[in-house]
Amino acid sequence: MKKLKNIAVIVFFLSTFSYAGDMEKEEEVRLNGEQTLLVDLSNLNQGTVILFEDQYGVTLYKDDLVRGGKYNKRLDLEMVPQGIYFLKVDKRLATKTWKIQKSSEGVKILGSSSTIGKPHFRTHEEVLNVYISNPDKQPLNMTVEDGSGVILATVKASGKDFQKSLDFSRVPSGEYFVKLYRGEEEFTKKVVIN
């Protein structure tokens, strides 16, 4: 019996380490030859969007995941002009980006991927809770605007985490826009009060 327990413990640890290794390989973008980009992603949620954009933000390829799970795609970049491109995996709370360069020598992935956290907006009755992780402590500005674009409130912060509750229970019916700015990034949430 003791021997069986020891074997079970060893199997558990081996499977845990194997699972941890798989987690590190969750998202892999690599080259296959000179002109093909291999995108191999796993543990994706429903609603994840895969984007391939040029340096001006023009979307050249978009794939909306109806189901979560794994995603495997080969992107042939032979017909794409030389320049800088971005492969983005846009999830609910973060966007992971790879910078890609196409030159006369072929295609290169520049550096490693970067992840940008996105705000989480949660509405409960007429209260909107806003949360965003800000590990670089960048300046954050949040505005609340009415449907005409008039700014009703402004909040500034620069902490590691930003959390704010906005109570819309005493405002007139209509549309409101909560805009959160972090550096060059802008996130907008529309709130409709009946």
Automatic annotation (TrEMBL):
Output the lineage of the source organism: Bacteria, Pseudomonadati, Bacteroidota, Flavobacteriia, Flavobacteriales
- Recorded protein name is T9SS type A sorting domain-containing protein
What NCBIfam families does the record point to? Answer: Por_Secre_tail
Task: Output the superkingdom of the source species.
Answer: Bacteria
Signal peptide residues are 1-20
Which UniProt keywords are listed? Signal
Which intervals hold domain Secretion system C-terminal sorting? 126-193
